[in-house]
Amino acid sequence: MTVPMIRLNSGHDIPQLGFGVFRVPADEAERAVSDALEVGYRHIDTAAIYGNEEGVGAAIAKSGIAREELFITTKLWNDRQVGEEPHDAIRESLARLGLDYVDLYLTHWPAPKQGAYSNAWAKLIEIRDAGLARSIGVSNHLPEHLDRIVKDTGVVPAIDQIELHPAYQQRDVLGWAEENGMRIESWGPLGQGKYPLFENPAVVEAAEAHEVTPAQAVIRWHLQKGVIVFPKSTRKERMAENFDVFGFELTDDEVARIDGIDPLDGSGRVGTHPLEFD
Ligand code: NAD
């Protein structure tokens, strides 16, 4: 199975489908990532705050897979945005991961009440220039935050990683990305199991038509939207199921019906709103 690659504004390529490790406990991370690598995933999404970078690093080291075949993302936590802190934070993350560089480093949240996200972004640019991250980006940034960091630095993030699934599509952020040559990553792509996506008739009927599971239909929807996606599961059979999404294609009509799931009033959101997170 070949996972499509997407070219970022940094000139580097990212596998469009990856594996996320949010809420994978530290003592399970090595096993889960080893399973994911065996299934075929080459793109792993972690974060300092997940507390499992060591487990991710141990699985990478054990795998014997060449570093250049892997795409590893980690994120700067909110309490490290000020002053020169991001420089310390990336070095600590790299030490835990056992790596010389990450493929992608993201500012985890704008945390606007702290007023430090633009400083964090300026430091990420220095981190990229120092060779510690091949590409840099942000997460949970709304157009107002993106406008601000680009105005302050002139540098457009390669990626904004946002909550995105059929019930919460954030079309304003996608519009900003399209206009500015930034790519979008979907977090909570399956609604984190909190939104009843798998019972929605648009999803169920698309899945039945292609003899796949509702989760596979939703992952396929993300891929056909052109966003980057990394569903999480600690169960190997589900990792394999979520990776097995290249043998069918949703029709335009099926995509349009799934698009219609978003109530467009923000009620489909399952995570915290970026303006409220500190
Ligand atoms: P997700 O939408 O991937 O949902 C994961 C849950 O869906 C699992 O715990 C499981 O219960 C269920 N699931 C997975 N595969 C399934 C299948 N085939 N059939 C049925 N149920 C299935 O949610 P997520 O883990 O929050 O998001 C994916 C990744 O996004 C995370 O692991 C993390 O890397 C990233 N993330 C980033 C942020 C951020 O603020 N940047 C926030 C949350 C998550």
UniProtKB/TrEMBL annotation:
Coiled coil regions in record: none
Keyword Aminoacyl-tRNA synthetase among UniProt keywords: no
Active site: Y50
UniProt entry keywords in alphabetical sequence: NADP, Oxidoreductase
NADP-dependent oxidoreductase domain segment(s): 23-262
SUPFAM superfamilies noted in UniProt: NAD(P)-linked oxidoreductase
Domain of life: Bacteria
Swiss-Prot/TrEMBL site (Lowers pKa of active site Tyr) positions: K75
The keyword rRNA-binding appears for this protein: no
Single GO MF annotation: oxidoreductase activity, acting on the CH-OH group of donors, NAD or NADP as acceptor
Pfam families: Aldo_ket_red
Entries under PROSITE patterns matching the protein: ALDOKETO_REDUCTASE_1 (PS00798)
Residues reported to bind substrate: H108
Family: Belongs to the aldo/keto reductase family.
Designated name of the protein: Aldo/keto reductase
Native source organism of the sequence: Microbacterium oryzae
Lineage, opening ranks: Bacteria, Bacillati, Actinomycetota, Actinomycetes, Micrococcales
